Amino acid sequence: MAGQDGQENSRASSQASKARPADRRVAQWMRDYARLPGIPDEYIGPDGMPRAVWTRFFDAFAALTPGDIERRFGSADRHLREAGVTYRAPGETADRLWPLSHLPLLIDDADWQQLSAGIAQRAQLLELVLSDLYGEGRLVAEGAIPAAAIAGSNEYLRAVCGVKPPGGRYLSLYAADVGRGPDGRWWVLGDRTQAPSGAGYALENRLVLSRAFASLYKSMNVERVAPFFEAFRDSLRASADRDEPRIGLLTPGQFSETYFEHATLARYLGFLLVEGDDLAVSGDRVHIRTVAGLKRLDVLLRRVDSNSLDPLELDASSQLGVPGLIDVLRKDGVVVANMPGSGVMEARALLGFLPSLSRHFFGEDLKMPHIATWWCGQKSAREEVLSRLDEFAIEGAYGRGVPGFPGNGPVLANELSPSERERLKSAIADRGIDYVGQELVRLSTTPVWDNGRLTPRPFVLRVFAAATPDGWTIMPGGFCRIADQSDARAVSMGDGARAADVWVVSDKAVSPSTLLPAVDTVRIRRIAGVVPSRAADNLFWLGRYLERAEATLRLIRALGTSQRDPGKGSSTAIQSVERIQRLLVTWGATSQTARSQSAKIAAEALQSEERFGSALSLVRSAQRTATSLRERLSPDAWQVITEMVERLAQEVDDDDGVVSAAELTLQELASFAGLAQENMNRAAGWRFLEMGRRAERAINTMRFARQFAYDEASGEDLDVLLTLVDCQITYRSRYLVGPLLAPVRDLVVLDPYNPRSVAFQVAALNEHIASLPTLKEGGLIERPQRLAVALQATLTTAEASSLDTKTLFALEQDLLTLADAIGLHYFPHGPNASRPEKLTGLA
């Protein structure tokens, strides 16, 4: 067989080279391309010739020069890096850069029609089975499904038995992992009914590759994926019981393996990205905790497993869900997609019963077969598996991995030691309900680009279906995972796999599509929507972390610059340097204080991994906080933060390198501030980012003033202060004398026209707080505004001559109190989280 396949590939290459001039390059790329023995391949068809869709692709691809190809590959990689497209492998805590294959998986239109018809039929079948299992229960009563096959699954939730799903559907989004079987047809490898992942990554793959190869993408007439997402969004909107529903995407949080995808979908679909702590149940409704009080939520697209959704009725240890959510479902108070308990259909124990269920419901066979499966909970199937154990892949009946054996993949008896083999046989014989036997399957292969050559690699394609009022809509494309090894029985992103865009290619021109609706179908609005308290909290702290990093970088630059000036050797200048060092120690940026080590102190304060107050640590804190805001930050803003982290993480060799890195990072911080100022909508989210920046800048400026404008401050001290707050030019334009204490204090602390002064920050804070919605009834001024007004009055009426070190310290404490009051009032902490007096059921 291997020799026959090799002859076919060789003959294909020879004939193709004679037939088309462009194939001289293609033949060079695929000179070592060999279809794996007995394995279907997407490029080489059963007749040993390249499939037409791939020939068409490589004809256009071969028109690019090698240099152009590499530039486009580099452009795709750069976009992934700058946009921060990441994922986490199971069990890992660090993000990985998204591994995108540079070539798409191609499927022609005729092949796709057959595939999508099979997916639509299967999705409808699983919907009908779920409706019966949680409803009348006839399938079990009539013996179509053994009761034990259902009861053995942790995903069968008795708490929702008899609960009709609000919105009318158990499955709003379905996905199936498929591969091309040995007969050349598409086969289902597994069903995804819990909370199917991958659609967001499929969207990102499309954005990256269609941008890198824009002309090629257009010329291939690739079907657009936007109509699928539009249909899905419209379906969720229609499932609610009011015209303009509020839709949230429930995520486990930024430590989820696929958090980037959650943020991508929320941003693209216009949903609110929420965590369990953002939601509260009151009466028969679910509400979002926002900075304007509780606001009703109508639809919840969940990416949290069913058992974790409600600690009151499901897993009591879960901190990801919403207490009382199941009771709200009983009262028809919120649509949850997919319905809790729908994950039961992922159980492999049910696969063997689906063919007969298809005939039961539709009177026809499954249009797309799946892997032949024997559930060992039945005596005949168990005996069959045990008698031919070496011919099966043993899998867990209800979850990932095989009970009693390590790993998440199948167990092959012929690869076990004699003792392990006997242990497996005993386990199946004693408790067959937990095991299934499946026929051994080798995944089909697709071409990947490997150092200028084409190489076949096994892949799994995940295809998505969205339930709509008109039936099931299939995404024309999908989420493809490609193994790095040529021998792969399963592919997951945690096993060194790469992803690929999926191009469904048409013979006709494809009209462009977008998620933007017609103007006359949408009520005009100018406010983007509510801001969850958690998002406001993160925006506030993002601003604080960035301002804190800026203050630290200014100290580092001042310390590094002092080493360059040989004329600053006086005792007062030395004292100023020591004050900078002490401040860096106080802020947790460094642990060193000796002046002779100024260079080491600056380097540690800039790049220390261990010091929580170093510039690198602060910018990384900002990045972690920004990760929770991916759906609210523009790609440009995220790129600036990423570049700052990368810059500060680079090793610096000398004093000049430290100062240069500090200065360049300060410029990037200014870029971020400009992006926020010019590009963010002036809604509550922007205000909290600004409030965080203003509060932290006021606190840091006051600390600078206390440290360098103390009662006995020298000229060098005051000069350092003017440099730290970027007021040298302003001071010199006003005063024709060197730095004097009273004018410097006035400029830095009291001047309302100086955008770096404390008074300016407090005035801005007062304006922002006054613009936020009030949370208490009765019209009384609330604590944050009361503190801000009092502080502004103090600064407005104070005179520079009356300021002293004690007064400066008191003002600093007032600023800290104001920052804490903002957090306690608006963010989800303790009793302030629910704010029941502002419950607005129809808001």
Automatic annotation (TrEMBL):
Secretion signal, residue range per the UniProt entry = none
Question: What SUPFAM superfamilies does UniProt report for this protein, alphabetically?
Answer: Glutathione synthetase ATP-binding domain-like
Q: Where is the composition biased (Polar residues)?
A: 1-17
What range(s) does the Circularly permuted ATP-grasp type domain occupy? 104-483
**Disordered as annotated region, ranges:** 1-24
Q: Fetch the Pfam families from UniProt.
A: Alpha-E, CP_ATPgrasp_2
InterPro entries, A to Z: ATP-dep_Glu-Cys_Ligase-2, CP_ATPgrasp_2, DUF403
- Every copy of the DUF403 domain together lies at 532-827
What PANTHER family does the database record attribute to this sequence? Answer: BLR2978 PROTEIN (PTHR34595:SF2), BLR5612 PROTEIN (PTHR34595)
- The name this protein carries in UniProt is Circularly permuted type 2 ATP-grasp protein
- Source organism per entry reads Bradyrhizobium sediminis
